[in-house]
Amino acid sequence: MLEIGILVSGRGSNLEAILRSIEKGIVKNARVAVVVSNDPSARALRVARRHGIKAVALEGAGDSRDVYGDKLSEVLQRNGVEPGKGLVLLAGFMKILSQSFVDLYEGRMMNIHPALLPAFPGLRAQKQALTHGVKVAGCTVHFVVPEVDAGPIILQKAVPVRDDDDEDSLSARILRQEHRLYPLAVKLFAEGRLRIDGRIVRLQA
Ligand code: GRF
Question: What is the CATH number of the domain that holds 168?
């Protein structure tokens, strides 16, 4: 059984999509052991509890990146999400992780970003895409490396940008695809079908 820890900061819609795909049996041999938020008021914590998942608020506002990373790995390991064995998912998690935390879960930590990376990393990616005038936008699931939004790409999905789009309408179109793409990436990982080969993630049959 793959033990999953999910790190969140806000709304929790990707968290919910992943929980549903496990509940429906689309993702097999995996369970979400714990959800952790740096923001105690995050809706995502309520989403987790509603699904019967342990939800932990870990604020650490005054902590250095290293101290926070140590606290985070302690919570994950206490709940069975072990380095080299478990899976960590960032789902709208707004804190930058320490190098040692990223090293600990190397190759076993994913993130979802609302842009076709390497275009538009960082905050408000959908707004960046609109401002740049791209005609195609989308989302990316990637493995996490210390540099933000820069790790090996697992899956991507493109969506059209319409002339009358604003940040909200484009974000909503991308989000619908995020909710399909992230559970699919988790499923592939749980089935042992992802191989990281340098920057390239190869999908095994
Ligand atoms: C998503 O757009 C995700 O791509 C980005 O943060 C947002 C989180 O939304 N990293 P939610 O909390 O999953 O609803």
Answer: 3.40.50.170
For residue 179, report the distance from its CA to the centre of ligand 1, in Å.
10
Q: Pick the catalytic residue: 51, 113, 132, 142?
A: 113
N-terminal to C-terminal alpha carbon distance within the chain: 21
CA 122 from centre of chain:
14
* Dist CA 40 CA 135 (whole Å): 38
Q: For a pocket test of ligand 1, which of 112, 124, 170 has the largest count of ligand atoms closer than 8 A to its C-beta?
A: 112
pLDDT, one tens digit per residue, over 155-189 is 999 999 999 999 999 999 999 999 999 999 999 99
The closest-lying atom of ligand 1 relative to the alpha carbon of residue 13 is 14
Task: Please give the tally of structural domains in the chain.
Answer: 1
Q: Is-above-0.90 flag for pTM?
A: yes
